[in-house]
Amino acid sequence: MLRATHKTGLVFFPAFDWAIDPTHPEREERLLYTQDQVFEEGLLDIDGIVELKSDLVTIKDIQRVHFCVPDPWAVITESHLISAGGAKTIGMAVLDGTIERGFALVRPPGHHANRVVHGARGFCNINIEAIMIEYLRRAYGIDRVAIVDTDCHHGDGTQDIYWHDPDTLFISIHQDGRTLYPGSGFLNEFGGPNACGTTINLPLPPETCDEGFLYAIEKVVLPILDEFKPQLIINSAGQDNHYSDPITNMSFSARGYAQLTSLLKADIAVLEGGYAIEGALPYVNAGIIMAMAGLDYSHLREPDYNPDRLRQDADVTRTIEKTCNYALEIWRKRSSIIHTVRQKSGCAERQRQIFYDTDNILETQQEQIRICDDCAGALRIDSVSDRGVRILGVQVPRKACQACIDQARHWYEDADRNVYRHIFLQDRVKDQYLERKI
Amino acid sequence: MIIGLDVGGTHTDAVLFGSHGLARDVKVPTDPDNLYETVLTALDRLLENQKARDVKRLVLSTTLATNMVVQNTLPPVAMVVSGGPGIDPEHFRVGEHYYVVPGALDHSGREIEPLDEAQVKEIGEKIRAAGLPYVGVVSKFSVRNPTHELRLAEVLAPFVERVFMGHPLSGVLSFPRRIATTYLNAAVFPVHRDFFSAVQETLAKKGIGVPIRILKPDGGNMNMASSLTYPAQTILSGPSASVMGAIAFAPQDRCCLVLDIGGTTTDMAVILDGAPVLAAGGIEIGPYKTLIRALQTRSIGVGGDSVVRVRDGRISIGPDRLGRALAYGGPLPTPTDAFCVLGMADGGDRERAEKGLLPIAEALQTSVTEAAERVFTEACREILAAAQQMVNDINSRPLYTVHEMHEGVRIQPDQLLVLGGPARQFADRLSSLFPGQVRTVPHWHVANAIGCALARTTCEVTVYADTARQVVTAQGEGYHEKIPSGFELKNIREVALDLVRKKALARGANPEFVQTEVIEEAQFNMVRGFYTVGKNIRVRAQVKPGLIHGYDPVSETLNRSDL
């Protein structure tokens, strides 16, 4: 009798009636063959694997993470509430102890959604992992969380949301941003002045194979996780590193994904991208489920799998080794790097332009963070899109010190109503989301 | 006239049903070691002084196959399976003669690895040498493309008496369940064939010429000829007999809970808007998870004869039954004894019941009457708690589209229909605990046999089309055809409805009144690169479980000249 050694929960929400548009990679058909494979393998019948019905997230859950412009309803569809709800359902089941681990096999994805949302970018509208994490922190008192993003694209949205949070370790392994959307995720992006080193980027060269990915996991990710000691490990499980993916250039296999999953031992996996829907997703997803449940996946392979053709170039291997060493060095020197980053006391600023490729919007952002030794720091974001809507978003971080609470209040209350269409306060201490009216 | 006969674990119930309704009913004890005698005894008693040739329809529900599976007396059969990549098929081994062979299809039915026919022939030799007359063949994704199973059957045919294939059994995807179902089909076949042939022959001698129909766990029946192809589909039909017995009395626009309270167990099911709720997967029996379509039912070990004990100051009922109630000469106190003490029983030795309940009363530090009250209430509470659990299970079934999530109907029964031996007594107490209307089903003591008599013929087909490959496949119908690339959902819907109708007729449905319906349909554009290459279309159609045409639930009579 086949039995899972780790009790594993699955939320499967393929959203068979939702698409960005009919031929878009993010379309109705995307998880159809995965469903076929999962059902035909009988994975859901295995003792110790349970399928859970997805719950919905609430608007409050979204507002705990995002500043949606002008409001959440304008930037989401019902499918987003369900897909984020799938992640939340898994998170709750893990923390309730009804399952040991879980996989939210849902769409649409979320890891390109930033803190401010004017629309969709990289097929994402809201960040389903962040919404789950902040809900779990609120409801279960979880503090330290690690997110390992193994999607082929840099998880820039998740990075943005946790850029200033020293309690959230964000590690993204992805194809080098010089060769792929969104063009970010370089080694020198390692977190804001209050959270140096808790953002780690591992940009890998195109054609990286199983060997390279597993090397990065073993040499960098696992030791850092070990030291960070998170209470929860979340895997943003994008599957577009697969050798057959149509929009990327990596050479990862289904068995490689399963091995990565076994090594990572994530408590929660959330599906992100992956667009080789016929030749890769059915096998990769089956592999991830089997690995999470602790089942033997040595018989799993894609129909066209040929390990000889998936050998890594020596050049590629050298680049990976260099990148890994550099990332580890940043991690080890993180406390001294802080001094370099904090050139002046008071507030640090950054100005950015963010392009929403899916919705064709250009956002300009001015961000201010109060440099703080006692908390993640009060945050002020002045954001305007090329559609002309300018907003101010102010955040009181979780566990904020009094000085940061006062600073955030001050920013919120003193903002000029004539300049901003909307003025928002996201107060994570009081778990409140306010909009200032005249 | 129609005969309905339901073999239960304790009793076998049979009814004779005619144009004026229930004409006669009998109840005989079941001899689990001789079901043939049990069935014939019941039929003989039912037909005393009746004209056998007036019997125009005869539906049986037996525990024959169920018992073989539960008691593990299945004869050995060989299995040949081809899995390809995925979970090692060795994990799904059934029996000693289980062979895993090369050969693989992908999720769309495309061949990714050919069969090794020479090896299959060698296996055929081994199976013949082992003296096994039956072999089951199953390949992964065979419902998308049956070619490998058909070829395996062809190659193995010279070595055995009969080959059973996996794809005809169900269109539902699950390789492990397909293996188990095919195995059960092959293993149950000889006993099933011998038993029903013997019954049929004996009936013929008595002047009943109509072919036997056999009840299925989905609440429908099929004729004997079809049952020889799908004998496993007769497993666990008992609970569906009761549901079909109650269905005529369930409202058409509400949610109704059916409780069949027997001596050993209580079986429960839900009827939503007049139709029984089907289980999401197939039946599970013994170690086997199958693809055999069934009503969603739940069975708990609380019945009229369940043993009552006191554990840690609390009443505990069942799940065991050790013979009859004390009031009827049994060894230990039961809920039936509680009725007896409370003066609610139709007979039985009240003094013996009171004496038997005395230790229970002492342990609870109360009077015998109060103890009886509490036993009774506790039994009802346990039944309702189990029913609520089943309702919760139905409500927590996953949904896969935004539309379904939006519709998201949650069921909550507000009607209770009770049948079975102690139905009358239980209904009385249940009405004070259940927040809704509680009724006993008319003829509650034999309603299960009436359900058999009146159940219609049911079946289901799943049709899968891929317009890029220009193929359409329907499981079980030997249907694997070319289609034009322009085919759409509506064309496939027609194919499915046509196939399900043909299948129903082959199984013995009344051609005048076959009600078919589509239960699931979906159409996806298949995009490769950035171009749509075709459509992937899936349609499931069925004949919904229900009662035969002509039955009037108000007068409880049958308006059919042919029956």
TrEMBL record, chain A:
Gene3D superfamilies: Histone deacetylase domain. Residues 79-278 form the Histone deacetylase domain. InterPro entries: HDACs, His_deacetylse_dom, His_deacetylse_dom_sf, Ureohydrolase_dom_sf. It comes from the Bacteria. It holds the Pfam family Hist_deacetyl. SUPFAM superfamilies: Arginase/deacetylase. Belongs to the histone deacetylase family. PANTHER family: HISTONE DEACETYLASE HDAC1 (PTHR10625:SF10), HISTONE DEACETYLASE HDAC1-RELATED (PTHR10625). This is Histone deacetylase. It comes from Desulfofustis limnaeus.
TrEMBL record, chain B:
Residues 178-458 form the Hydantoinase A/oxoprolinase domain. Residues 3-156 form the Hydantoinase/oxoprolinase N-terminal domain. Pfam families: Hydant_A_N, Hydantoinase_A. PANTHER family: 5-OXOPROLINASE, 5-OXOPROLINASE RELATED. This is Hydantoinase/oxoprolinase. It comes from Desulfofustis limnaeus. The lineage of its organism: Bacteria, Pseudomonadati, Thermodesulfobacteriota, Desulfobulbia, Desulfobulbales.
